[in-house]
Design goal:
The complex is a heterodimer. By secondary structure, chain A is mostly helical. Chain A has one domain: Orthogonal Bundle (MetI-like fold). The N terminus of chain A is likely disordered. By secondary structure, chain B is mainly alpha-helical. Chain B has one domain: MetI-like (MetI-like fold). In chain B, 72% of the residues lie in helices and 0% in strands. In chain B, helix 6 crosses helix 8 and helix 8 packs across helix 12. The radius of gyration of chain B is 25 Å and the shape is globular. The N terminus of chain B is likely disordered. The chains are: A mainly alpha, B mainly alpha. At the A-B interface, helix 1, helix 3, helix 4, helix 5 and helix 6 of A face helix 1, helix 2, helix 4, helix 5 and helix 6 of B.
Chain lengths: 273, 295
């Protein structure tokens, strides 16, 4: 064992450097967006021309942008509710339903991981046209529920699986109905994961572009707005300012979701009752 | 009911039908209607002719004949496979050491590092691609930085609008996808296996090659899949940084449902992509069985 340790430490230091380099590669390109969003130039190029908040001011009082933002928020919240509800029920039944149907549903719910976004987009486009919805906000919501579903199922499933089986059995043995057991015991115990799943699916919807591109029609969301602005070189700094805001919000939401998820899991392990 | 509860047939056996129905309903609707039925529509449409109507006319394999006989589609499909393959290779190979470090060396920093590598996963894909556009552009970050430091005197066009730009951008955009599955596979290797290997005299490299690597193969293959699938159908990155020389199959599908307006043909292309992915999944399964799960 001790020889494993020393070898591990020698190699570990080099690996540590590599990981550091990897993180720089991961973050550096993205961090350029905030950097140049404060740069006093239309071009995103060195040398930096001086500090300005002008580009953030152009974000104010832009009706197309605020419309897209409102759409993104509404769609994000509704899609996150739908995806979280599906994630909770699908994973709960997968674990405790003891039926082949529940297992099948859970397997299909994770299938979108194996379908490229463009195909999810066109299949839903055909579907919503067939049932008469057409490209619309409801269609976008349906698309985003689908895109977020694998995430919510995975998050909820691992949470439910971490709750000791005996707790649910005790509730049932003491005469609680399935519904009561679910609502009063299992759901409260997994509340952090529910919140985490909700926030993550909101983020997925909020940032999603590939599927929404097909389902939007005349509606607009923030990613679609950004895409439409990329054609105009003059609006590049505005896009970077908007991108910075979106990145900041995403980081905050993702960080809170992660913290919630880990705190929930830790609490369950330490104090299962 | 309450008297029966005291005896213990598995509690699962008495789930009430109403509860079961209510709990299965939302997931059932979404999976069967939005996923299976919608994919079924794509397959159906792929065998129809284009007459401008929603579901086309007739029953024909003409779309597939066109895909199979027109060299354009072979070129683009091959290019998509090569680009997605390179991206997958690059992502998995670069992610492996990170996952290895996380599993075996990170110690107290593990949670922080895990958090840092997964965080970009939750940021806008569009913005990550956009970041590369400003890095690689003619008067962009890379060119101006090189000129500023005196390495070059003229900006070069060689970065943007090349397949290489697509590979780098996609590899960066999907990097966080690869680390987690590999990390999970490495982390679940029992430490006793490693100790046994070293007790039996295996040198670190041997024990890595004979014990760690085979045991982490399921994670590596899962990582390869979750990177390969979205990249092979991507149309955003080729449009943003790739230029006409890096049109991918996703671009063609997207244009069939947009400008070209031939939905049945786009559906046929989609079916082909799904078949390709199915083949890749089967190969990965086979590889997993051969190299991976031998314990």
């Amino acid at each position: 064992m001790s020889s494993v340790r020393t070898d591990a430490n020698a190699g570990g230091r080099w690996l540590g450097l590599y990981v550091l380099g990897y993180l720089v590669f991961l973050y550096l390109p993205v961090l350029l967006i905030p950097l140049f969003s404060f740069n006093d130039s239309i071009q995103a190029a060195f040398p930096l021309q001086g500090f300005t908040t002008e580009w953030y001011r152009t974000l104010y009082g832009n009706p197309a942008l605020s419309g897209a933002l409102a759409n993104s928020l509404v769609i994000g919240v509704i899609a996150a509710c739908g995806a979280t509800l599906c994630g909770i029920t699908v994973s709960y039944m997968d674990l405790y339903g003891r039926s082949p149907l529940a297992a099948t549903i859970s397997a299909i719910a994770r299938l979108p991981i194996l379908i490229p976004g463009v195909i999810v987009g066109i299949s839903l486009l055909i579907l919503v046209n067939l049932i008469g919805l057409g490209p619309s906000r409801i269609s976008i919501v349906l698309g985003h529920i689908l895109v977020a579903l694998p995430t919510t199922v995975v998050v909820m499933r691992s949470r439910f699986a971490a709750i000791p089986k005996t707790i649910r059995e005790a509730a049932l043995d003491l005469g609680a109905s399935d519904w009561t057991t679910f609502r009063r015991v299992m759901l409260p115990l997994s509340l952090p994961a529910v919140l985490s799943a909700f926030m993550l699916s909101f983020l997925i919807s909020f940032d999603e572009f590939i599927v929404v591109f097909f389902l939007a029609g005349t509606e607009s969301t923030l990613p679609l707005y950004i895409w439409s602005q990329l054609r105009f070189p003059r609006s590049l700094p505005t896009v970077m300012a908007l991108g910075t805001v979106i990145l900041t919000v995403s980081f905050i939401i993702a960080a809170s979701a992660e913290i919630l998820r880990h705190r929930g899991l830790g609490a369950a392990r330490r104090n299962p009752a | 009911m309450s008297t029966v509860a005291a005896t213990r047939p598995l509690p699962e056996n008495r789930i009430s039908p109403v509860f079961r129905f209510a709990m299965l309903l939302p997931g059932g609707l979404v999976t069967f209607f939005l996923i299976l039925f919608a994919l079924g529509l794509v397959v159906f449409l792929a065998f129809r002719g284009n007459d401008g109507s929603l579901l086309g006319v007739g029953l024909t394999a003409e779309n597939f004949v066109t895909v199979a006989t027109d060299p354009l589609y072979w070129t683009v499909t091959l290019r998509s496979l090569v680009i997605a393959g390179l991206v997958t290779l690059a992502t998995v190979v670069t992610a492996y050491p990170v996952a290895y470090y996380l599993a075996f060396h990170a110690g107290r920093r593990r949670n922080l590092l895990l958090f840092l590598v997964t965080l970009p996963f939750w940021t806008s894909y569009l913005l990550r691609v956009f970041a590369w556009k400003i890095v690689l552009a003619y008067n962009g970050v890379l060119n101006s930085a090189f000129i500023e430091t005196g390495l070059w005197s003229e900006p070069t066009l060689a970065f943007l609008n090349t397949p290489a730009a697509v590979v780098v951008t996609l590899a960066h955009a999907y990097a966080p996808f690869a680390i987690l599955p590999i990390y999970v596979a490495l982390d679940t290797i029992p430490k006793s296996l490693l100790e046994a290997a070293s007790d039996l005299g295996a040198r670190p490299f041997t024990s890595f090659r004979r014990v760690v690597l085979p045991n982490s193969m399921p994670g590596v293959l899962a990582a390869a899949l979750v990177v390969f699938v979205p990249t092979v159908g991507d149309y955003v990155t080729p449009a943003m940084v790739g230029g006409p020389a890096s049109t991918m199959i996703g671009t063609l599908i997207q244009s069939q449902f947009g400008k070209a307006n031939d939905w049945p043909f786009g559906a046929a292309l989609s079916v082909c992509v799904m078949l390709v992915i199915l083949c890749v999944v089967l190969v990965a399964r086979g590889a997993d069985r051969r190299f991976g799960s031998r314990r």
